[in-house]
Amino acid sequence: MLRPVVVGLDGSRESLAAADWAAGEALRRGLPLRLVHAWVGLSSDASQLPELEAPRYWARRILRGAMDQLSERHPQVYLSAEQIPRPAVDALAEAGADAELLVLGSRAFSGFGGYMAGSVALATVARATRPVVLVRADRTPEDEHLPTAAGLPSERTPYCDVVVGVDVSHPCEELLAFAFESAALRNAPLRVVHAWHVPFAPPAAVATMSAAAEQAAEHALADELRPWLEKFPNVQVRTLMENGRPAQQLLHAAQDAGLLVVGRRIRPARLGTHTGPVAHAAMHHVHCPVAIVPHE
Q1: Are 250 and 266 in contact (CB under 8 A)?
Q2: Which tens digits make up the pLDDT trace of 113-169?
Q3: For the stretch 90-103, what's the b/e string if a residue is b when 16 or more beta carbons lie within 10 angstroms of its beta carbon?
Q4: Positive or negative torsion for Cα 151, 152, 153, 155
C-alpha cells in the first residue's frame, strides 16, 4: 500500500502554501495526497450542539476550498480529505506516522529578523517519526526553480539545489536517502554540507591539527556518501566543508536552495520534545521549504 503525502490544513496562508507544495511533491513521487484538518469540536459526544454548527461549517469549508484549488492546479493528483476530532498536534502526529511525509505551514515572524515556525508545527515535528516538511506562506512553485536568463521567476527552468546537512560522527541513512531521492526526483544538484572543527590545542599546533581534522572529515564524508553516489549515479553532488558551527554553515548554504534537508534524532519521551540545534535553527531562519528527517 502506498503511503500518502499528508498535509495539515487550518485555513491559514501558510497551510494553503503547504498544500500546494505537498501536491507538487505527491505528483513527483506518484503518491496520493491526503488533506487533514483537526478540530476538537468534532467530538461525536457534542455532535448535536447547535453552537458548533458554525465552526463545523468553516472546518468543512477549509477542506472543500483546498480541494477545489488543488484539483484545478494539480488535476493529476489523487486527493482525499478528512476531519479528525482530536487536538491538532495529536491528529497531525498520528496522520504523519502513516505518511510518506507530512507537510505543514510555517509561520513567518519578522519582529526578530527571523522566522517562527509556530507552536503546532514545532510540537508536531518534535513528535514525528516520519519526515516533516515546513513551508512558508510566501513560497511559490517558481521559488523552487532557477530564474530565467532575464532574471524572472519561472516553473519551466531547472530546479534549485537540494541542500542537506551531514554529521559524519552520527551517520544517518534515512537523512541521505531522503536527500538523494528528493534531488533525483527534481533532477536537481545535491549540495552536501558538513562543518568540522578543530579541538582545543596550543597555538603552535593549531595549523597542524586543523589540517588533520579537515582531512579526517573529508575521508569520513567520502565514505558516507560512496554508497549513495553508486545508488544515484545521475545526481550531481557537490560537497561543502567548512570549519565552524554546523547551524551557521547550513543556514548560509541554504540561502539559494529549493529544499533544505536536516536530521533530528528521536529521543526517549522522558527527555522531552527536542529538535536539536541545527533543525531548530533551520525551522526558524531558513526561507525555503525545510525537511526534517527523524532518525535513531
Answers
A1: no
A2: 333 356 788 889 989 999 999 999 888 899 999 999 999 999 999 999 999 999 888
A3: ebbbebbeebbbbb
A4: negative
- Grid cell listed for 32: 496520493
Output the nine-digit C-alpha cell for 195.
Answer: 562543518
**The domain 140-296 is classified under which CATH number: 3.30.1360.70, 3.40.50.620, 3.40.220.10, 3.40.50.10310?**
3.40.50.620
Q: How many residues does the chain have?
A: 296
Shortest CA distance to 159 belongs to which of 89, 17, 235, 257? Answer: 257
Fold classification of 1-117 (topology level) = Rossmann fold (3.40.50)
Is residue 158 a contact partner of residue 206, using CB atoms and an 8 Å limit? no
Q: How far apart are CA 42 and CA 47, in angstroms?
A: 7
Q: Is the pTM of this model over 0.90?
A: no
Would you tell me how many other CB atoms lie within 10 Å of the CB of residue 272?
A: 8
